[in-house]
Design a protein that fits this description.
With about 120 residues, this protein is α+β, with helices and mostly antiparallel strands. It has a six-stranded mixed β-sheet. It starts with a helix and ends with a strand.
Length: about 120
């Protein structure tokens, strides 16, 4: 029974990542994020609630001038926990092109992400 749950979560994470990589970030957000989701960037205060986080996502995407590439470098899945390592090549508006590495740690409840924290270095 436990193996089936992990496989289902792994499939969800892979589907979500594929949606993001194909440019469907907001659709992935609607499908996989809990209405009470809390999202946090490094040590910044968390943003709580799906509506507030949707606005945060839209604002973040609006800061991107060009996404040159994104790649999932690794995925780990446990009991109601997933971690995704991303590498991105991006130009933000008014900033030079940069390569970024980020790890998203996702805690799941009711088949959706209830808590997500992003870890990355500010270079």
């Amino acid at each position: 029974l436990k193996q089936t749950k992990v496989m289902n979560l792994k499939e969800k994470v892979e589907d979500m990542n594929n949606m993001i990589l194909s440019g469907h970030t907001l659709q992935a957000f609607e499908k996989y994020y809990h209405k009470e989701v809390s999202m946090q960037e490094n040590n910044a205060p968390p943003t709580v609630g799906k509506d507030a986080n949707r606005e945060r996502e839209i604002k973040s995407m609006g800061m991107i001038e060009e996404l040159h590439g994104a790649e999932v470098k690794g995925v780990a899945v446990g009991d109601d926990l997933s971690m995704v390592e991303w590498e991105m090549d991006v130009t933000y508006k008014g900033a030079p092109r940069a390569k970024m590495a980020q790890v998203a740690v996702q805690r799941w409840a009711d088949g959706q992400i209830i808590n997500e924290r992003f870890y990355y270095s500010s270079m």
